[in-house]
Design a protein that fits this description.
365 residues, alpha/beta, Aspartate Aminotransferase, domain 2, 2 domains, 7-stranded mixed beta sheet
């Protein structure tokens, strides 16, 4: 068996320990004589695992029972319309802090449901290279929520402080950095994240809603059944058949974070070290590698940089693959190189990647 070093942006690397456990249980999960993919979602065995995953999430996040944990489908992109559908009605307005591609995608959907203000750091050429300062955040206190994206996978920027938005409920798309570090759950009213970066495989989207914000949601009867948060909260995300296997892998990944890594504080230390190693390799390259993001906004999850020419970047991607390092081509809309160093990629992989970077630079200067 040959395993590559996987820096894909999503679906992304999954911890080896999790993959091995899933392999071990593939044909006989939990003594049922079936795979978890074959067990009824109404069975006591499945429900116990489903509920355990919710409890593990709350424990790692420092959330109490006042948080409703939902397992939904449709990816984080479905939350771009589901959120405003549930909250922008009867003249309510929102605020969107747009720091990258996915923030722009969120407002594209929100416009169908109600008014909102936009605060953006978009450059004239359509790129994003920084996170706004606190003093730039002028949030209307009448807004029903303020939406942010904590990490920008395409442009490689990340919030390194949590914004103050007054009494306005703060909503965060944490898809690409959730559980990469601790965060103050009490600052937020709703968090959502596609699982395919740090929580497990694609197929399940986690939504956490605090009770006081949940109470403001649109009545279930006024929405399509499957697009109401109330439908899923009132049925423990079991109104219809959930993505059982994806939730099972999420459960194992949360156990890995808790028991093997030792929690989010330890995970943050590992991620800071990975980012330090990569950015040091970029900064010492004397311009051979060029990072476009302002240093105080650099992402600890998606490290993006450019080389001198597109042809040089193509060569970098090709040679990296030959060296067993995959998933480093930048997003199709931006080009360049991108290393997505999510939780499952530990320090050893990043060191091997920077060894390759140093050798590639030596050969091509």
């Amino acid at each position: 068996m040959k395993r590559v070093i996987n820096f894909n942006a999503g679906p992304a690397a999954i911890p080896m320990e999790v993959l091995q456990k899933a392999q071990e249980e593939m044909l006989d999960w939990n003594g049922t004589g079936m795979s978890v993919m074959e067990v009824s979602h109404r069975s006591k065995e499945y429900e116990a695992m489903h509920n355990e995953a919710q409890d593990l999430f709350r424990r790692l996040a420092g959330m109490g029972p006042e948080w409703k944990i939902l397992f939904l489908t449709g990816g984080a992109s479905s939350q771009f319309f589901m959120l405003p559908m549930n909250y922008l009605f009867d003249g309510r307005k929102a605020a969107y802090i747009v720091t990258g591609h996915w923030g722009k995608a969120a407002i594209k959907e929100a416009k169908h449901f109600g008014p909102f203000d936009v605060i953006t750091t978009e450059n004239p050429d359509g790129t994003f290279t920084r996170i706004p300062k606190q003093e730039e955040l002028k949030i209307d206190p009448a807004a029903v929520y303020a939406h942010m994206t904590s990490n920008n996978t395409i442009f490689g920027s990340q919030w390194h402080y949590w914004p103050e938005v007054g009494k306005v409920p703060l909503v965060c798309d944490m898809s690409s950095d959730i559980f990469s570090r601790p965060f103050p759950a009490d600052k937020f009213s709703l968090i959502y994240a596609g699982a395919q970066k740090n929580l497990g495989p694609s197929g399940v989207t986690l939504v956490a809603i605090r009770e006081d914000f949940y109470s403001l949601a649109q009545e279930q009867a006024k929405l399509p059944t499957m697009l109401s948060y109330r439908t899923h909260a009132e049925n423990n995300s079991l109104y219809n058949t959930p993505p059982c296997f994806s939730i099972y892998i999420l459960n194992l990944t949360l156990k890995w974070l808790l028991n093997t890594i030792g929690g989010l504080g330890n995970m943050q230390k590992i991620n800071l070290e990975k980012a330090r190693i990569l950015y040091e390799a970029i900064d010492k390259s004397e311009g051979f590698y060029r990072g476009p993001v302002e240093k105080d906004s650099r992402s600890q999850m998606n490290v993006v940089f450019r080389l001198t020419t597109p042809e040089m970047e193509e060569s970098f991607v090709k040679e990296a693959k030959a060296a067993g390092i995959v998933g480093v081509k930048g997003h199709r809309s931006t080009g360049g190189i991108r290393f997505s160093i999510y939780n499952a990629n530990l320090v050893e992989n990043v060191k091997k990647a920077t060894d390759f970077m140093d050798e590639f630079r030596r050969k091509n200067r």
